[in-house]
Design goal:
The chain is an alpha+beta fold. The protein contains 4 helices and 12 strands. It has 2 domains: 93 residues, Creatinase/methionine aminopeptidase superfamily (Creatine Amidinohydrolase), CATH 3.90.230; 116 residues, Alpha-Beta Complex (Creatine Amidinohydrolase), CATH 3.90.230.
Length: 223
């Protein structure tokens, strides 16, 4: 399921053009999920420009413009299991500030992954993100500019399921658990960056389902 949605993300990045609406992109993504073998998109968030600073979307139509910042979060179901992947990138040229925040997000995502070890608590993974935020000079306590929500959620037969990578969740990580890793750093009223990949726990540690983005210029690892 994750591989299918990753293929859809790559196809979507290649079809974007100036003037396309967010609803047109969502329709394309639904058709693309069907083409790779799913029953369509289970959900889909498409955001442009300042809209990317709102984690779960906006209530108005958006139209893509040159050099817009783009955030797409989507997934499907396969044999009852969910995918859920987010990519953020520039449709054109990113500003220096956007590049900086993109790298912050990737560093936060890596900090969470590195902290995920069997026997550690779920909240310890979120704590690692908060510590990294301080190191980056951003607000660490669920405030802005920074990461205003949990680091990740459990995933499987439900899209969002217990336990969560969030402060206060003292569930111990165990083999077989699967989580999203999506801190999402927000620069309020300007833009947001969410990079979402998932990992599963094994006795040897955490392993990615999909390879995280390598750079803001190569969000789909194609270069």
């Amino acid at each position: 399921a994750m591989d299918m949605t990753m293929a859809v993300h790559r196809a979507t990045g290649a079809m974007l053009h100036e003037g396309i609406t967010a609803s047109e992109v969502r329709a394309f993504i639904d058709k693309a999920h069907r083409k790779v073998g799913a029953s369509g998109s289970f959900f889909c968030i498409v955001l442009f420009g300042k809209g990317t600073s709102y984690p779960h979307g906006v209530n108005y139509e958006q139209r893509l413009e040159k050099d817009d910042w783009v955030l797409i979060d989507t997934g499907c179901k396969l044999h009852g299991y969910h995918s859920d992947i987010t990519r953020t990138y520039a449709f054109g040229t990113a500003t220096e500030e956007q590049e900086q925040f993109w790298q912050h997000e990737r560093d936060l995502q890596q900090a969470a992954f590195d902290a995920a070890r069997v026997g550690k608590t779920c909240e310890s993974v979120d704590d690692a993100v908060r510590a990294k935020l301080k190191e980056l000079g951003l607000k660490a306590d669920y405030q802005l500019p920074g990461v205003p929500h949990r680091t990740g959620h459990g995933i499987g037969m439900d899209l969002h399921e217990w336990p969560y990578l969030v402060g206060g969740d003292k569930t111990k990580l165990a083999p077989g658990m699967c989580f999203s890793n999506e801190p999402m750093v927000i620069n309020p009223e300007k833009f947001g960056v969410r990079l979402e990949d998932h990992f599963y726990m094994s006795e040897e540690g955490a392993f990615w389902f999909t390879e995280p983005s390598r750079s803001v210029d190569d969000p789909f690892n194609l270069l």
